[in-house]
UniProtKB/TrEMBL annotation:
InterPro entries: Endo/exonu/phosph_ase_sf, Endo/exonuclease/phosphatase. Gene3D superfamilies: Endonuclease/exonuclease/phosphatase. Keywords: Endonuclease, Hydrolase, Nuclease, Signal. One of its GO terms (molecular function) is endonuclease activity. Coiled coil: none annotated. It comes from the Bacteria. This is Endonuclease/exonuclease/phosphatase family protein. Residues 1-28 form the signal peptide. It comes from Micromonospora trifolii. The keyword DNA-binding does not apply.
């Protein structure tokens, strides 16, 4: 059966539209982390989690969401990227994320993986849509944040799940992205990675204006293996991994440091990957050709 045509969706997400904005504090500040002196780097902490929460995979335990909530509460990251989740998981973790960022407005985004046999979305065992998500805190509830999302044009035809990618424009100062690449065909995963980094992200930059860009996710590729994840890391870009399949990579105007592996205590088959981003807005990044 032919693969579903490549989809590249752009939509504007009103901040807090996934949960009622009225539930947020009325006296929230409107200061953005990007609103200060442009000569000073913006420092953010990013947490990557693969929760294996479909209910269908062998790594499912039913405990991943509770542990994710504990980790977010303990570490208070500024950005959270989520792989292998059900759609309502984003809303549930939105509430936790809001609690650790009181007075801030939270934007939450979700992108479902495709399902080739049905032509619909992949579903968790409970019938909810399955895919990837992203959480960030932004400056004001009235601000609209553009979300870019789609499925990769190359898929493993032996796998019914069509892998997806997702990006959110955070306050006009950062493009934060996540993806979960093919686990059944490593060459396919490399092709997906190459196309995302070399085509999709530059297209967003070309059409919407350049922003420093960070990508986190379970890429199902390793450094030093064949194929090597480093072959889809552009020159000058930094990359940090968990020693296995989860990676964070960023454009040349973002410095990555201070990697921390957060234990999930068997709740899922991946540790949490916590990385600090130092965004130098005065330093030119790798702009699209």
């Amino acid at each position: 059966m032919a693969a579903r045509p490549y989809r590249f969706l752009r939509r504007t997400l009103a901040v807090g539209c996934l949960l009622a904005a009225a539930a947020l504090p009325a006296n929230r500040p409107t200061t953005s982390p990007f609103a200060g002196d442009a000569a000073q780097p913006t420092v953010l902490r990013m947490l990557q989690l693969n929760l294996c929460n479909s209910g269908r995979a062998g790594c499912y335990t039913g405990r991943a969401m509770a542990r994710a909530a504990e980790v977010i509460t303990m570490e208070a990251p500024d950005l959270v990227t989520l792989n292998e989740i059900c759609e309502p998981d984003v809303s549930a973790l939105h509430g936790v994320f809001q609690t650790v960022h009181p007075g801030r407005t939270v934007v939450a985004a979700f992108q479902a993986a495709g399902d080739r046999p049905s032509g619909d979305d992949t579903r968790c065992r409970n019938g909810q849509r399955f895919g990837i998500g992203l959480l960030a805190h932004v400056r004001a509830p009235a601000t609209s944040n553009t979300v870019y999302a789609g499925t990769h044009p190359t898929q493993d035809l032996a796998d019914p799940e069509e892998r997806a990618w997702l990006c959110v424009d955070v306050d006009g100062g950062l493009l934060a992205c996540t993806t979960h690449l093919s686990a059944t065909g490593y060459r396919v995963a490399l092709t997906q990675c190459d196309h995302l980094v070399d085509t999709i992200l530059p297209t967003i930059s070309r059409n919407a204006g350049y922003e420093p860009t960070v990508l986190a996710g379970d890429l199902n590729l390793r450094a030093g293996h064949d194929p090597d994840v480093r072959s889809c890391t552009p020159p000058g870009h930094q990359r940090i991994d968990d020693g296995r399949l989860q990676h964070v990579t960023a454009t040349t105007d973002i410095a990555l440091c201070c990697r921390s592996l957060v234990p999930m205590y068997g709740a899922t088959d991946h540790p949490g990957l916590l990385v600090t981003l130092s965004i130098d807005r005065g330093r030119p990044g790798r702009r699209p050709a």
